[in-house]
Write a structure and sequence with these properties.
The structure holds 2 protein chains of 2 kinds. Chain A is of the alpha/beta class. Chain A is built from 13 helices and 12 strands. An 8-stranded mixed sheet of chain A has the order 6-7-8-3-9-10-12-11, sandwiched between helices. A 4-stranded antiparallel sheet of chain A has the order 2-1-4-5. In chain A, helix 4 crosses helix 5. Chain A is globular and about 65 Å long. Chain A starts with a strand and ends with a helix. In chain A, 49% of the residues are buried. Chain B folds into 2 domains: 201 residues, Rossmann fold; 68 residues. In chain B, strands 6-7-8-3-9-10-12-11 form an 8-stranded mixed sheet, with helices on both faces. Chain B has a 4-stranded antiparallel sheet with strand order 2-1-4-5. In chain B, a hairpin with a 4-residue loop joins strand 1 and strand 2. In chain B, helix 3 crosses helix 4. The chains are: A alpha/beta, B alpha/beta. At the A-B interface, helix 7, helix 8, helix 9, helix 10 and helix 11 of A face helix 6, helix 7, helix 8 and helix 9 of B. Chain B: InterPro entries: AAA+_ATPase, ABC_transp_ATP-bind, ABC_transporter-like_ATP-bd, ABC_transporter-like_CS, Oligopep_ABC_C, P-loop_NTPase. Chain B: It is found in: Cell inner membrane. Chain B: It holds the Pfam family oligo_HPY. Chain B: One of its GO terms (cellular component) is plasma membrane.
Chain lengths: 335, 333
């Protein structure tokens, strides 16, 4: 483990054991997170991006799922080898997480102040009074006005944007080294989303927290991430610095995603007609059957026999840019 | 008749009463829609955009007469349907159909896909028996579903396929107007593109009028011809798509456009105008201009004077005191 990386995920595989068979939700995913860096993980529903995050924190439901392979090293320690008590000391303290829907992840019967102070007391052991001071300080930090009054309020008394600020306040209350944000702005209106994203980036600068930003939204990725992992069907298909990813998307799936999104910053009409969006034909594969070859092959215009038979390894194409595709040369030629 | 708008709404108001106290008397009203007017021609898409609680979905439900309007007028192909009883509304129902956001909860899970699409044909006495089957099969093909899928139940379809099914059902009775409320918001982008393409093809083919409701500005820019921006129950700006995106005149439109993330890391916009605070409650909308509490350019007059929606350039309507008709606009910054 290099000292630069705070988190190293290697060949992570998480399976769900269902009546319909074994679902390979995460199927051998590796990535690093450098200290203070923002890493984006992007992909569509079911690609495994949330399960990856939950697996890092060992929060997947034990009745139905298990981490079947790989390792997660945090600050030099293998998280898989820790006891549940040791893991609890890391969650919410060294690695914190915020979720999409703040209403369901906040406790409705506790005040905001209590929920922040609880986390502070649990992890630092300071007296309750000091923890409440910390709670007020955190609400100021996330720019909730009138913190003195707000710490007495319950989640239902706050707007959606303020609830997400409160979630961020809880998550950052013990100065974590890593913040995992799973679709943190998806449930919010766009003007509120802008406020929350700006807040997260500002706090990252101020506190030096590394962020894993999980989202389906390429716009959010472009505005927040420094490096990006693209996932499809439980696998990493591309990884690149954000500028390189958008300047030269290389995996056919990444390209497909980028062309499928209508653009806000370009005129949609060509000679008065609305152009067709580029579709990605078909749908994502079911993950409860083993996928031989490249998972994207059935929807890919470049796919060959080899793609259907043999899974492509991740190959570096330029500095920091890696792609899992047999046909990279042809794809780049087609650009 | 042909120059009549397919759908016209005049000064539409929909208030929901709030009851409270011991006797459950009416103590107030949520002013969900408060004086909205627009018209949509054949073959045209009017986009209705705004954030949660702005009233855009209530407009959709009210023009479908799923909600009774408090006041105002709704005209379908020139015929006033505002106060028609459900029975009298029946012949007009065929002309206005809807596609909902969530294709999971809007399709009956106990019916086969073929029944779902064929049922309206029978209800409106358009076709029965073998002819109905034939028509339903043709609709399946038109929206990109296989004929064999007619015998399946909705849970066997993916999200995108369900939305195709919802579109086939809406199309089955040859409507003039389709109200589409966030029809692609629940879909992944790769599937979203398929459904948007289908909607555009069908519109061009049948010259359908769309009232397209969405919070997604990029989708709006792609599919709409004209766009109305709503805030707290009012239209604050209504313009041709091109004009709206190149020269937004209302400060709220400007803020919406600035806030939407753009998938281009080179254009990261730091220091953009970010609106402070939240949308006020539609039960207690602010006095004067409803946007003045969040407006970075608000004048003292904005607190008292409620600006009307006026046409400041051909086809470009805006409700802002800084944008008087016929006069020089007061500069924003």
């Amino acid at each position: 483990m290099t000292a630069m990386n705070i988190l190293e995920v290697r060949d992570l595989a998480t399976h769900f054991f269902t009546l319909d068979g074994v679902v390979r939700a995460v199927d051998g995913v590796s990535f690093d997170l450098a200290r203070g860096e923002t890493l984006g993980i992007v992909g569509e529903s079911g690609c495994g991006k949330s399960v990856t995050a939950l697996s890092i924190l060992r929060l997947i439901p034990p009745e139905t799922s298990r981490i079947v392979g790989g390792s997660v090293r945090f600050d030099g320690r293998d998280l898989a080898a820790l006891s549940e008590a040791e893991m609890r000391a890391i969650r919410g303290h060294r690695i914190a997480m915020i979720f999409q829907e703040p209403m369901t992840s906040l406790n409705p019967v506790l005040t905001i102040g209590t929920q922040i102070a609880e986390n502070v007391v649990r992890h630092t052991g300071v007296p309750w009074r000091a923890a409440l001071d910390r709670a007020r300080e955190m609400l100021d930090l996330v720019k909730i006005a009138d913190a003195r009054r707000r710490i007495e309020e319950y989640p239902h008394q706050l707007s959606g944007g303020m609830r997400q600020r409160a979630m961020i306040a809880i998550a950052l209350s013990c100065n974590p080294q890593v913040l995992i944000a799973d679709e943190p702005t998806t449930a919010l209106d766009v003007t509120i989303q802008a406020q929350i994203l700006d807040l997260m980036l500002e706090l990252k600068e101020k506190l030096g927290t590394a962020i894993i930003m999980i989202t389906h939204d390429l716009g959010v990725i472009a505005e927040t991430a420094e490096r990006v992992v693209v996932m499809y069907a439980g696998r990493k298909v591309e990884e690149a610095p954000v500028e390189a990813l958008f300047a030269q998307p290389t995996h056919p799936y990444t390209r497909g995603l980028m062309h499928a999104v209508p653009r806000l910053d370009a005129d949609a009409e060509i000679a008065g007609r609305r152009p067709r969006l580029q579709e990605i034909p078909g749908i994502v594969p079911a993950l409860n059957r083993p996928i031989a070859g490249c998972a994207f092959a059935p929807r890919c215009g470049f796919a060959t026999e080899r793609c259907r038979a043999e899974a492509p390894p991740l190959v570096s194409t330029s500095a920091g840019h890696a792609v899992a595709c047999w046909e990279t040369a042809r794809v780049l030629e087609a650009a | 008749m042909s120059d009549q708008p397919s759908l016209e709404v005049r000064d539409l108001v929909k208030h929901f009463p709030i009851h409270g106290g011991l006797l459950q008397r009416q103590t107030g009203a949520v002013q969900a829609v408060d004086g909205v007017s627009f018209a949509i021609r054949r073959g045209e898409t009017l986009g209705l955009v705004g954030e949660s609680g702005c009233g855009k979905s209530t407009v959709g439900k009210t023009v479908l007469k799923l909600l009774e309007p408090t006041s105002g007028q709704i005209l379908i192909g020139g015929a006033d349907v505002t106060h028609l009883s459900p029975r009298a509304m029946w012949p007009h129902r065929r002309r206005i159909q809807t596609v909902f956001q969530d294709p999971y909860s809007s399709l009956n899970p106990r019916l086969t896909a073929g029944t779902i699409v064929g049922e309206p044909l029978e209800n409106f006495d358009i076709a029965r028996g073998a002819e109905k089957e034939e028509r339903a099969a043709a609709l399946f093909q038109r929206v990109g579903l296989r004929r064999e899928a007619m015998t399946r139940f909705t849970h066997e379809f993916s999200g995108g396929q369900r939305q195709r099914l919802g579109i086939a059902k809406a199309l089955s009775v040859n409507p003039d107007v389709i109200v589409a409320d966030e029809p692609v918001s629940a879909l992944d982008v790769s599937v979203q593109a398929q459904v948007l393409n289908l909607l555009i093809d069908l519109q061009d083919e049948y010259r359908l009028a769309y009232l397209f409701i969405s919070h997604d500005l990029a989708v709006m820019r792609h599919i709409s011809h004209r766009i109305a921006v709503m805030y707290l129950g009012r239209i604050v700006e209504l313009a041709d798509k091109r004009a709206l995106f190149s020269t937004p005149l209302h400060p709220y439109t400007e803020a919406l456009l600035a806030a939407a993330p753009i998938p281009d890391p080179v254009r990261k916009r730091r220091g953009r105008v970010i609106l402070k605070g939240d949308v006020p409650s539609p039960a207690r909308p602010p006095s004067g201009c409803r946007f003045h509490t969040r407006c970075p350019y608000a004048l003292p007059a904005c607190r008292q004077d409620d600006p009307p929606l006026i046409e400041v350039a051909p086809g470009h309507h805006v409700a802002c005191l800084r944008r008087p008709a016929g006069g020089d606009p007061v500069p924003l910054s």
